[in-house]
Design brief:
Shape: globular
Helix content: 25-40%
Distance between the termini: 29 Å
Number of strands: 13
Strand content: 25-35%
Low-confidence stretches: none
Radius of gyration: 18 Å
Number of helices: 9
Length: 301
Amino acid sequence: MREGALLVVGDVITDVVARHRGPLASGTDTPAVIRTVPGGAGANVACWAARRGGVEVRLLGRVGSDSAAWHERELAASGVRPLLVVDGQAPTGTVICLVDDGAAAERTFLTDSGASLRLGPGDWSDTLLDGVARLHLSGYLLFTEPSRAFVAVALRAARARGVPVSLDPASAGFLVTLGTDRFPALVEGVDVLLPSRDEACLLTGASDAADAAAGLSRHVPLVVVKQGARGALLARSGEVYARVPAVPATPHDTTGAGDAFTGAFLAALLTGADPEQAAAEGCGAGALAVERTGGRPPARA
């Protein structure tokens, strides 16, 4: 157990969630329930970590001036200390989440990253690690050159201070664009990798999640593969050593379920849980997340 805060670095996004039932009707209207809510993988992780409690959570991200004040208020309401860089040239990123309101509540994203991926080395200061026990990086930072340079600077600073670093690959679609062959070098020095099943399989070329987890754990000390309703797999040194069952839930909107898992998992680690216990807490948070609209937990009273 390390004393100190969790510093999350990643995207802060405005989510427009449109819940519809059945296929989209091309060329005409499709009835939907539409809500605008705060989101972003990095911000969601921070909020779920703060909800779990027991650790101070800070978030560094880049937003546009159009909604900076709103996002700061929303993060603070969730118990997160916001460290937001306001971009004068780009608006806050926006994601349109199309959620099929059927049994599986599957979702499709339309993404305008806006200011979120303009985070660069100039936004980093080694003082950000003061009082920090763990650094978590959103994998979305790997998908533009400025934010990749930021990741490299942050990883070097964390290594110099002995601060462990975790990373969530974030998006199978963006990983294809990045090129999976580039991924290992970009995450060198990360001690915990938290991919989804699809991301793990894509990164390794394996069709089985356990094989993918085992393969990734030959390069990263601890790999936690999130499988949604199938729970989670934990792997070290080329072997899956634990399978953690999911918590039953009735899906309403699966947006942010993986972020909820990651936030609860990291907070639990920092308060002394072992990885299996932390993964069980992550599964519980994921179950709560899919029963809500949007990727955030309820705001604190």
